[in-house]
TrEMBL record:
Highest classification ranks of the organism: Bacteria, Bacillati, Actinomycetota, Actinomycetes, Kitasatosporales
Keyword line: ATP-binding, Nucleotide-binding, Repeat, Sugar transport, Transport
UniProt xrefs under Pfam families: ABC_tran
CDD domains given in the database record: ABC_Carb_Monos_I, ABC_Carb_Monos_II
GO terms assigned for molecular function: ATP binding; ATP hydrolysis activity
Domain of life: Bacteria
InterPro entries: AAA+_ATPase, ABC_carbohydrate_import_ATPase, ABC_transporter-like_ATP-bd, ABC_transporter-like_CS, P-loop_NTPase
Name of the protein: Simple sugar transport system ATP-binding protein
Amino acid sequence: MSEAVPPAAVHAEGIVKRFGATVALDRVGITVAAGDSHALVGRNGAGKSTLVSVLTGLHTPDAGRVSFQGEPAPAAGDTAAWQTKVACVYQKSMVVPDLTVAENLFLNRFDRGRIRWSALRARARDLLAEYGVDVDPTVRAGDLTVEQGQFVEIARALSFGARFIILDEPTAQLDAAGIDRLFTKLRELQRQGVAFLFISHHLQEVYDLCSTVTVYRDARHVVTAPVAELSKAELVEAMTGEAAKAELAWHAKRSARDTATTGVTDTAAGEAVLRAEGLALDGAFESIDFAVRPGEVLGLAGATASGNTALGETLVGLRKASGGRTLVAGRAVRPGSVAHALGAGIGYVPEDRHRQGLVLGRSVAENATLTVTDQLGPYGTVLPSRTREFAQRMISSLDIKTSGPGQPVADLSGGNQQKVVIARALAREPRVLVAVRPTAGVDVKSKDALLGVVRGVADRGDAAVIVSDELDDLRVCDRVIALFHGRVIAEFGSGWTDRDLVSAMEGLPAGGDEGAEE
Ligand SMILES: Nc1ncnc2c1ncn2[C@@H]1O[C@H](COP(=O)(O)OP(=O)(O)OP(=O)(O)O)[C@@H](O)[C@H]1O
């Protein structure tokens, strides 16, 4: 025991944080050892983001203490001092989009009057090279990919001297190759003594990257253990407080339907709820045909640049097709018109809930009913009682953690905001629901419930389209079309294997390679 153990990268104890009547953190603690990769997991609303705010100096806790490398945390408001201790990298990086990478790296570090731009660029180049980040410092930050933005943020944090970095769902917008590169970089930095707190709803990533895991539930600390000593079932049990079910409940059944859905163009026009005929968008995807029948959930699988998201956005009218057409129940939908798509019965769950999904200052009830206000009272009036009643129903069926329908959406945790977006799309009882990565940021248990709700849309006789690269999202589909570089590369019935679908999304032709060596 005589070896000198370096002080913990961060140590927090007895942290209490209240928002009005809500106790977001109830005497919790966390200790991240130097050079460790420590996961923090918990259901939506468990308190993870609130802890991040406390550990980065954004919120002052009502009680408790935080220290970095054995020294008390800086005073509240001393941003410069906090930056030398800790940084948080979010899925959307916090860089200023209109400034160059070099400017972002040195933001607020120089007296503006004395900036020498050539020197600044050279320093930025050195700094990026030092941390092995392959990004041109003269590029506008807004033009970086999510992955590049995150690497720049990490380099920026390290250059301030921070040896502790929080990653809040960093993989949410990365494809498999991007996740690999991120993890490789993190392992490399870990070897140099940098510690990470990793927040993710993808439990497999916790097992792939982290050596320690802490679970919070309902604002309380439940357990901290070496990852190797906790099975997935035990982890889920700690998160939910219930014995874990063996598997996700919402697999599409392998039914008679399966054998009937081998072709994409064989459906008679009258039967399909949604049909794409030669649908194309220049630069995104080429002429695509498919039909979604009543009772069917269709998956549009694909990695980041595959065109699947653009296809989803074209179906809902956010983008205007450059060729072909979309039909709902045999009637053509006006291209490029969200209002027309909505009127035709297409419900939409967008990927980016902050930009496209919610009015943050408004209540849960108002947001959940944004598309149905014409149904909530006579002659265009909105009856508050009906709005609340509808919202209350959605809150319980989707298990939204909120103090009530009147709570502003801005006060909900990220995953619970996503559920409000889904509630809103369901409110109109769409004939076809188009959902883009519907479970992003949603915890394991809620994920199951949400996918069940999407499945339910089809089971009541309507239809759904799930645009995603998440295998769990795609498992509820009766049929999956995989896109690669804007083209359909493969199509699967519900009996696909993870390996086949992943290969297709990576651009490898499906089938015929069973048993091939990696
Ligand atoms: N500004 C705020 N005002 C009121 N309540 C808040 C505020 N911020 C968070 N809360 C509440 O605190 C609790 C914890 O939220 P937090 O965002 O920390 O959860 P989380 O674990 O990060 O969830 P998710 O996985 O969904 O991101 C939630 O009940 C949330 O509604």
